[in-house]
Each structure stands twice: as structure tokens, then as C-alpha cells.
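ARCHIVE CARD
Drawer: 12
Card no.: 0347
Subject: one protein chain, sequence and derived structure
Cross-reference: see card 0346
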Amino acid sequence: MVPPMECYRDRVDAGKQLAVSIAERLQQIPSAKGIPYLLLALPRGGVAVAVPIAQKLQAPLGVIVAKKITLEPNPELAVGAVTVDGQVVWGGGRFQTVDKAMTWSRYSEALQQARIHAEMQWQEFAPYCPQFKLEGTIVILVDDGIATGMTMAAAVKSVRSHHPAQVWICAPVAPLELIPFLERLCDQLVILKTPSPFYSVSRFYQEFDQVATDVVIEQLQQVNGNNEV
């Protein structure tokens, strides 16, 4: 049995603590001075963490959807991740190549299914996200925790295609052994806890319930206004 290791009461508590660290880092980095910034959260759990950060920074909050690519017979095991705009990261080792024992058709089908699911989720949240250009901005990517890094890597790849000034990866918790990989992905990395062994993100929260779609919409409205934007 994996012992609990609660660091945070809930996602809001984690977001408040993360907000302090991000604000301090923004003040400390000379290259961040004078550049507009915005937050993109990975739904659904990442949005709850991002709300206190957006409020502290007085920054707009949007979502970026990246879905894990999984194969039968083990739908829990991710082999990659894809974003709505088709940016793909494959697993195998640490994001090396696909398993050559599998036929490409299986991977292709799984990729298409994941992208469809990503598009469906994006359509749910898009009306509540502000319209903004990523080019020349500091994009702060937020999630409630990083386990394998696949969805975050796909999100970074998607954001990079829009030529931002900087990409930051921010989360309350991530595995210690994943830190070098994450550092290579971004311009700034803000992770509050880096435990080893890691096991799962939920282990570090007292409350880690599934987040409903309507709750995410309410959270986006809380930051961006009560009406569709």
C-alpha cells in the first residue's frame, strides 16, 4: 500500500502557494520585465490551481487541451499525447519512439481518438476563454501536478508553435527524476514539491475529487467574467 503524503488541502490551496512562487519568480527574472503574460491551464484540475494564480497576477486565464494517447488492452497506460491543433508527443523510454512491435495503424487510430476527445473538451471551454495572441507573450502553463510529462510536453509544443517570448511550466508537484526533462522543455520551471518516489499526483492532496465540466466553466468565468467572452 502506498502511504499518503498530503502537501496540499486541495487544488485552490496548491494554487495559492504556487501563485506566490510564480509572482516572486516574475520579479526576479530580468527577461520577464515589461512582457505581457497569460495563463493556460490543462483541464480539468489545472484550472482550479490556475484561478488563484490568475487573480494574483491579474492575468487572463485560458485552457490548453492535451489528451493522452492510449492503446488497448491497457487504457491506463499512455503511449503519447496530442493537443487540439495536432501537436503530438510519443512515449517509449522518455518520449523516444513508438513501440515498433505495434502496427502504426493502431497508433494512428488511437491518436485520432485522442484528438477527437481533445476537440470535444476544447469546444466545452472555448466560449469562456479570452481571445489573445501568444506571440511575444510569457505563457504560463499550469496543471495540478505532473506525473509523466506527456500532456505537458504536448502543450508546450503547441504553445511554441505560436512563437511566445517565453514558456513557463508551473505545477504544485512533479517527480524529481522528471525535472531535467521539464527544464529542457521550458524557459522557466516552477515546481513546489519534487518527491521521490512519486506514485501519483493525488497522493499529495487531501482532497482530489474529479472536476466536473460546469465547475471548470464557473472557474473560468470567475477570472474572465460572468459572461461568455
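Annotation on reverse: The chain has six helices and eight strands. Helices lie at 11-28, 45-57, 104-125, 150-160, 179-185, 213-224.
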